[in-house]
Amino acid sequence: DAKTTQPPSMDCAEGRAANLPCNHSTISGNEYVYWYRQIHSQGPQYIIHGLKNNETNEMASLIITEDRKSSTLILPHATLRDTAVYYCIVRPDSGNTGKLIFGQGTTLQVKP
Amino acid sequence: NAGVTQTPKFQVLKTGQSMTLQCAQDMNHEYMSWYRQDPGMGLRLIHYSVGAGITDQGEVPNGYNVSRSTTEDFPLRLLSAAPSQTSVYFCASRTRQGAEQYFGPGTRLTVT
């Protein structure tokens, strides 16, 4: 599975958009980009995933570059409850075994 | 649905003791996994299962055994606890086609 690189930490003002980058330059054609987050001491929570098109759901938007070597997770109006560690994970979907390989993630601190 | 449940929430063991961490899900998910998370680190995959009777090793399987006799349950056994196994353990599940993996609340294990 391709590896990902994320900044270790970021700050964001409450009410502003939080843009979390992820590099996955060795991604393969059948690998999806997944984002999870982990709020302090809790189990990780799924946010969104995509292959090559931009995706949006009630939690966030995912922007994947045309060459698929990087992506950005956007939380449009960050709140204090969005303070968490955000993990970008690359994983193939076809015949996959459900494995998620977590890196270090980005610690997002939303400040009032 | 209760989702993914884990017991116990907390456990203290002495070196050399054995124990079983319990994980159950009531969503009829085929895939189940066990992860450990050490302080300040991301999650690391211990073992996973793609269905009843089928298990396989993840990144850090040494010192742990699993079995999957039913779809609902996926217990994790520590054979002879060591201080290096002090960690928070998370169980997760998902459907065969599902993108979202559901995590349990975790078990905090301390080995003295």
Major sheet characteristics of chain B: 7 strands, mixed
Topology pattern of chain A, helix = H, strand = E: EEEEEEEEE
Q: Number of helical segments of chain B?
A: 0
Query: What is the chains' assembly state?
Result: heterodimer
Return the structural class of chain B: mainly beta
Task: Provide a concise account of the structure shown.
The complex is a heterodimer of chains A (112) and B (112). Chain A has 112 residues and is mainly beta.
Give a written overview of the molecule.
- Chain A has 112 residues and is an all-beta fold.
- Chain A contains no helices and nine strands.
- In chain A, strand 5 (55-56) and strand 6 (61-64) form a beta hairpin.
- Chain A starts with 8 loop residues before the first strand and ends with a strand.
- Chain B is mainly β and 112 residues long.
Secondary-structure topology with pairs:
The complex is a heterodimer of chains A (112) and B (112).
Chain A: E1 9-13, E2 18-23, E3 31-38, E4 45-50, E5 55-56, E6 61-64, E7 70-75, E8 84-92, E9 106-111
Parallel strand pairs in A: 1-9
Antiparallel strand pairs in A: 2-7, 3-4, 3-8, 5-6, 6-7, 8-9
Chain B: E1 4-7, E2 10-13, E3 19-25, E4 31-37, E5 43-51, E6 54-57, E7 64-66, E8 76-78, E9 87-94, E10 102-103, E11 107-111
Parallel strand pairs in B: 2-11
Antiparallel strand pairs in B: 1-3, 3-8, 4-5, 4-9, 5-6, 7-8, 9-10, 9-11
